[in-house]
Design goal:
- By secondary structure, the chain is an alpha+beta fold.
- It folds into three domains: about 30 residues, no CATH class; about 90 residues, Homing endonucleases (Endonuclease I-creI); about 100 residues, Endonuclease I-creI, CATH 3.10.28.
- The chain has a five-stranded mixed beta sheet with strand order 7-8-11-10-9. A four-stranded antiparallel beta sheet has the order 3-4-6-5. A two-stranded antiparallel ribbon has the order 1-2.
- Helix 9 crosses helix 10.
Length: about 280
């Protein structure tokens, strides 16, 4: 066993083991009646929320890579030095879909809290240093909106983990729509948006088997091009049969895998409509 602190020869103190890591420490005898002994704040958090500190053990699973995709589009990370006031490592996701965040918490631990009026939004937050550093290593930054680049990470994923990652991206910053039109029936479509050109191009390349399409800067709603840029925003559009084909690959999952229910329901509606034609 290792000794964390210099031992004191004082009748008020006694030698004990850290509850989490079993390191030898000293604590006041009177305090031990009310508190478990810990050698550090890290060990306190490991004891209170062990799942959070086991996040990296899920690294090669679809749910882990789904979480990464969701963070890439709808999450936020912080680390010492990223702003003048940030001194800790953290990652959070804020959204209205509390059931999804509850599913994430069940697997990966962390904390959930209600946000806004009437608690409509919820925020999931973890402070796992290794996890945040991993997100940094694959291309995420505190200002990921404009400089997100996950190409190297994505190309080394297995096919199953790629589809899980893309499902996280769709559930974060994607749109799936099916609308009624008076003249020619239903109109179906889906798109993914990002302010990072390299990120959206990576997604387009995956769905188009490596064929890059032109990026236009003067159109907002154009179905002549696969990627449409509006100012600093980029959109990857899918239409017709491509919607069903791409979404089917994304939502081909096991029962225990994470997904956003409302977008999955829209995908199933589009699939049913296309099959009825």
């Amino acid at each position: 066993m290792k000794t964390i602190t210099t031992l004191k020869y004082d009748r008020q103190y006694t030698t004990v083991e850290c509850t989490t890591c079993k390191a030898i420490i000293q604590r006041r005898k009177d305090k031990l009646k009310y508190y478990n002994p810990f050698c550090s704040e890290v060990c306190v958090q490991k004891y209170k929320d062990p799942k959070q500190f086991e996040i990296m053990s899920h690294k090669d699973t679809p749910n882990f890579n789904y979480l990464v995709g969701l963070i890439c589009t709808d999450g936020h990370i912080g680390y010492p030095g990223c702003t003048k006031t940030t001194t800790t490592y953290y990652c959070n996701i804020k959204m209205r879909d509390g059931d999804l965040l509850e599913g994430i918490q069940k697997i990966f631990g962390g904390h959930l809290r209600k946000e806004g009026k009437n608690g409509i939004q919820k925020t999931w937050r973890v402070g796992n240093i290794d996890f945040v550093k991993y997100l940094q290593s694959i291309g995420l930054t505190n200002n990921k909106t404009y400089n997100l680049n996950a190409d190297n990470y994505f190309k080394h994923l297995s096919d199953k983990n790629k589809t899980a990652f893309l499902r996280g991206v769709i559930d974060g910053d994607g749109c799936i729509s099916i609308t009624s039109r008076k003249t020619n029936g239903m109109r179906v479509g889906s798109y993914i948006c990002s302010a990072s050109k390299s990120f959206i191009t990576m997604i387009e390349t995956h769905f188009n088997n490596g064929v890059l399409t032109e990026v236009t800067k003067n159109q907002q709603n154009s179905y002549k091009k696969d990627i449409v840029a509006t100012g600093s925003m980029f959109y990857y559009y899918m239409n017709g049969n491509r919607v069903v084909e791409n979404l089917r690959s994304i939502y081909d999952m096991q029962n225990d895998e994470l997904y956003l229910k409302r977008k999955y329901a829209k995908y199933k509606a589009i699939e049913a409509y296309q099959n009825s034609k």
